[in-house]
Amino acid sequence: MKLATWNVNSLRVRLPQVLDWLQANPVHALCLQELKLADDKFPLEAFSEIGYQAQWAGQKTYNGVAIIGPAESTNVQRNIPGFDDPQQRIVAVTVDSPIGDIRIISAYCPNGQSVGSDKYEYKLAWYAALQDWLADELKENPRLAILGDYNVAPTDEDVHDPAKWEGDILVSPAEREALSSLLGLGLTDAFRMFPQEEKSFTWWDYRRFAYRRNAGLRIDHILLSDALAPYCTSCVIDKQPRGNEQPSDHTPVVATLDFTQKI
């Protein structure tokens, strides 16, 4: 089973790239973020034509998340229960697997704008609500994967120039602690389960030739529950789409789970 995440920074603009990528890289679930289109504008027919189904939570101009997969999903949840938020940042589904139901969540975590701003405080409150919800989800769904754009680089290893970014948004101590608290629920950063190349990033600014210089951050993550992590055999960053014409500023991350292993 392959699970992938990709912040596409406008599905309207990037739809042909997403369709091409799916056909070249078949997956059981592709979690998308920053759809930037209303619910009724979601291009379901385009995905259906290549054999995929979808669940999504759209929002005009901003945010928006989706989960694309070949199999029917159930128990669809939009947004964090009990957290009053007009922004569409969460969609969750349940899918079947050889070891039983798996709960898959696509998350677009807030950016925060700048440390100390109102949007920063919203980000921390959102993370706290996410943690409370995931604690309950894990009790009901021990086989859980939450994929998305977390807008947090976990350690200095995930930052191209730690000294330049020190204390800034995406790397501030409070943001890193919020992500660490999620891991403390019994989740594992799939990418760090395996040896990886130094300077491995998932996001590069459009400005100052950042991609060409590999001046990026690793802020897109696949977190696997304790019940799923032992089945993970690889987790890779696919940099190819970032080199496309008119690319997203993010690129896909893909984890492979092998359920034939004896755990």
Write structural notes for this entry.
The chain is α+β, with helices and mostly antiparallel strands and 263 residues long. The chain has a single domain, classed as Deoxyribonuclease I, Chain A (4-Layer Sandwich), CATH 3.60.10. The chain is built from 6 helices and 14 strands. Helix 3 runs parallel beside helix 5. The radius of gyration is 17 Å and the shape is globular. It starts with a strand and ends in a 6-residue tail after the last strand. The mean pLDDT is 97.
Features:
263 residues; alpha+beta; Deoxyribonuclease I, Chain A; six-stranded mixed beta sheet; 6 helices; 24% helix; 26% strand
Question: Helices and strands in order, then pairings?
Answer:
Blueprint: E1 2-7, H1 11-24, E2 29-33, H2 44-49, E3 53-57, E4 65-69, E5 74-78, E6 90-95, E7 102-108, H3 118-140, E8 144-149, H4 162-165, H5 173-183, E9 187-189, E10 203-204, H6 210-213, E11 216-217, E12 220-225, E13 232-237, E14 253-257
Parallel strand pairs: 1-2, 7-8
Antiparallel strand pairs: 1-14, 2-4, 3-4, 5-6, 6-7, 8-12, 9-12, 10-11, 13-14
Distance between the termini: 16 Å
Number of domain units: 1
CATH superfamily: Endonuclease/exonuclease/phosphatase
CATH topology: Deoxyribonuclease I, Chain A
The total strand number stands at: 14
Q: Report the biggest beta sheet as strand number plus sense, adding barrel if it closes.
A: 6 strands, mixed
Sequence of strands across the biggest β-sheet: 3-4-2-1-14-13
